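Let us work through a complete example step by step.
Step 1: write down the sequence.
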Amino acid sequence: MNAPIGHYQYDSIDRDFLAARIDEFADQVARRLDGRLTEDEFKPLRLMNGLYLQLHAYMLRIAIPYGVLDSRQVRMLAEIARHYDRDYGHFTTRQNIQFNWIRLEDTPEILRKLASVDMHAIQTSGNCIRNVTSDQFAGAAADEVLDPRVHAEILRQWSTLHPEFTFLPRKFKIAISGSPNDRVAARFHDIGIIARPGPNGPLFRIFVGGGMGRTPVVGQEIFDAVPEDELLATLEAILRVYNAYGRRDNIYKARIKILVQALGIDAYRDAVRAELARMNLDDYRLTPAMVHAIRARFATPELDAPADAAERLAADRARNRTFDRWARSNTHPHRAPGYIAVTVSLKPPGGIPGDATSAQIDRLADLADTYSFGELRITHMQNVVLAHVRQDRLFALWESLREAELATPNVGLIGDIIACPGLDYCALANARSIPIAQKLGARFGDADLQEQVGALRINISGCINACGHHHAGHIGLLGVDKRGEEFFQITLGGRSDNQAAIGEILGPALPEDDTVDAIARMVDRYLVIRGTGETFLDTLTRLGDAPFKEAAYEKA
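Step 2: predict the structure and record it as tokens.
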């Protein structure tokens, strides 16, 4: 197969558009460098091209639509890390990659290199519709109703430089799941879309008004049965209502979640229906032919596992306990017999969540070529997925991952920590997320301990903007500034699945090292008081937070 699998294939129109956009931005960069543009004049222009000015340098955020990359794109990211950054990239909770040490004068050249492999940084910032995220197991998961990448691509094309939605009241985030089992945190997005079975084909449940940040809100279901042909019209109407009535006088009240709360979900639904009644729906109808045309631009893998692939995997697991443990935590069922999806953890004990060196990024490209048709996915959990691995080749893949120091067996466990870059890089942060993530990763780095603890997710944000999604962590940490010192507020009980919930504050914020000790005591208490088969969230639900609060604030 010549075309890279897994994502939409660009044509000459797409590539000409990118080239023109880069030429335009290159001129803007030149005018900023020679002083013809002030920083205030340049700021909105650079943000439209994914370029931030952080504490120490420029940061470039590169879009990875619905999280899918092919190996040539991955190798280009490694090249950028080596030549233009400090030899690493940072994968984010929005299925993007960030480079934190970019020189302004290098950005046009970087963007041209990205364009050479059909990538860009458009709409990774600004008050527009951002990168549409999706399920990391899309097209491979055994439980999906449809492959959401096709619809995510349709939404990408619909939203890119949309004339009405380029200057919204605030940034806008959409996630789509092809499975009824929410793996995209749909209810924590401005719009979350979840496919479900219908009598005549898939239908879409649509949630609006979710989000984290200063005002965390679980989104509410506005429609429960939108047919495919009405999807674009429905989203257009939701956005039009928000664009017309969203607050523009107060940045903290400008998100759609505030508008939905102010109006109430029923009134918002009525406003959307009224907007739909005014629209010519034929202009927005998503016909089967349109969907087929987009789907046809996705090359698909030829899945041909041998009949005994599962038996060979079972034998490999039986003879190697270490491999078996990794397979338990880091694999996911595949729709095709003889195949399995693999999550590569970017969270080694004591490591920086989401960071990968250029050598590791190159190695991931090699492994994708060898074991998964040259395709990788970036997850909103800051890990990497090889989605189509033959079960009889899983052991060989694991051995290669071990050689690259990428075989940490902790996906979904306490060591699988999510963290934003924090005060080490971000000008908005109040505290450093990275050091405490490293300390917690080292504290719970033992594989036997992680397996004993079981499903427990820690999320860390360096400020109230919640880029580390701390509100959705089973244990969440929020960095706060107390008279110039970094403290961490602990929350318990957050989750982002079908039972989405916002974590509740446990008590007073603690210094960094005290926070690490407090979490260790809470975990120890959980291991003592849990019932048979209970997860951390099960025990918290049964007993409430009292035993955990007692443990966290226990005096030595």
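Step 3: interpret the result. DSSP finds 18 helices and 21 strands in the chain.
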